[in-house]
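Researcher: I'd like a candidate sequence for this fold, 118 residues long. If you have to choose between options at a position, lean toward the conservative one.
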């Protein structure tokens, strides 16, 4: 009933930029929170950035990444600047959704690979 579709991943050189997008669709009354997580090889999955009542970033991306939302279109973006090889990993979009039937459910996108070469 609810799908999150991501785009924008790929290969970029160190110091470059990528812009990820995630569009939610389906039976959605309201999206309470949208955020980005990543899985880096050898590390625990971590929250990268989240947008809800406030905006938060992982310490490792502060000053380099920017999360933004287009609420009218249920879309969240992650602008990633000054990328370095340590940012390489699989990035997931997450949304906490209140459906029309009143249920509050967390959904995940399919993920997208980000690879940064030196």
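Model: Candidate sequence:
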């Amino acid at each position: 009933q609810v799908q999150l579709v991501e785009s924008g991943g790929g290969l970029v050189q160190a110091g470059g930029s990528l812009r990820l997008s995630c569009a939610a669709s389906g039976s959605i009354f309201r999206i309470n929170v949208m955020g980005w997580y990543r899985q880096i090889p050898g590390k625990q999955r971590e929250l990268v950035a989240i947008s809800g009542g406030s905006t938060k970033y992982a310490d490792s991306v502060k000053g380099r990444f920017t999360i933004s939302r287009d609420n009218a279109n249920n879309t969240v973006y992650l602008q990633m600047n000054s990328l370095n090889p340590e940012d390489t990993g699989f990035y997931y979009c997450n949304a906490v959704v209140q459906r029309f039937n009143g249920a509050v459910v967390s959904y995940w996108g399919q993920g997208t690979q980000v690879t940064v070469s030196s």
